[in-house]
Amino acid sequence: MNPIGWREFESAPQASAATLDALRELAVSLLSDNMARASGIMGLQPYHRPKAMAGTAVTVRTRAGDNLAIHRAFDFCRPGDVLVIDGGGELTQALMGDIMASYAESLGVQGLVIDGAIRDVGALRERDFPVYARGVTHRGPYKNGPGEINVPVTVGRMVVNPGDIIVGDEDGLLAIAPSDVERVIGGARKQGAKEAAALQSISEGRFDRSWVMPHLDRMMRG
């Protein structure tokens, strides 16, 4: 039995390569619009050159400023995973930098999502390996624990469960439940086609704004 604060669970089944490929081709904004516009990881910033990210969540909850559990979590990561780290949003110590990010990439991890601080951002920004974090500090981490692996975590005000599908681009991050992903992909594709048609109508000078005043009148009547 694991002591309190040191729980570890096996990683959840992975999303298929076809599903991840489909998600990388869709803007996070399109996916978000098909999740009631109410989901999303807030307050984290990308620290890499632009690249679409999609992968299966391996989650870590760690004491603020301590990365021992993150080092252990690498043993649970497989090619195609995204490592999602709940560091409590604490920015006084960096949870990782270029060395740990490079090691994660060598494992086939698709990206890192860190609700905490990182360092070595100059090196990270030169690469397209996805790294999202809440902030930056030069101060390094402790390695005392405790920490938990593959438990539900809260990252950027969003609950992420092990096995959720994490997607990211320059607009931000989403966690999609595996049971919802095909429906979300289908809706995002339809909306993408609709938005492409709208952009075409703008270029041709026929963009329809006839809905604006009726909608405004309806809202003002309340």
Keyphrases for this structure?
alpha/beta, Glucose Oxidase, domain 1, single chain, nine-stranded mixed sheet, 222 residues
According to CATH, what is the class? Alpha Beta
Helix content: 25-40%
* Residues in β-strands, percent: 15-25%
Q: Name the CATH architecture.
A: 3-Layer(bba) Sandwich
Overall SS class = alpha/beta
Any idea of the CATH topology? Answer: Glucose Oxidase, domain 1
Q: What would you call the shape?
A: elongated
Oligomer: single chain
Total domains, how many?
A: 1
In whole angstroms, how far apart are the ends? 58 Å
Helical segment tally?
7
Mean pLDDT: 95
Largest sheet: 9 strands, mixed
- Extract low-pLDDT stretches: none
Short structural description:
This protein is an alpha/beta fold and 222 residues long. The chain has one domain (7-188): 3-Layer(bba) Sandwich (Glucose Oxidase, domain 1), CATH 3.50.30. It has helices at 17-24, 28-33, 68-73, 98-106, 121-124, 181-203, 212-221; strands at residues 45-46, 53-62, 81-86, 94-96, 111-118, 131-136, 147-149, 153-155, 158-160, 165-169, 172-176.
What does this protein look like?
There is one protein chain. The protein has 222 residues and is an alpha/beta fold. Helix content is 30%, strand content 24%. The mean pLDDT is 95. The strands form 2 sheets. Strands 1, 2, 3, 4, 5, 6, 7, 10 and 11 form a 9-stranded mixed beta sheet that branches. The chain has a two-stranded antiparallel ribbon with strand order 8-9. Helix 5 links the parallel strand 5 (111-118) and strand 6 (131-136). It has helices at 17-24, 28-33, 68-73, 98-106, 121-124, 181-203, 212-221, and strands at residues 45-46, 53-62, 81-86, 94-96, 111-118, 131-136, 147-149, 153-155, 158-160, 165-169, 172-176. It has a single domain (7-188), classed as 3-Layer(bba) Sandwich (Glucose Oxidase, domain 1), CATH 3.50.30.
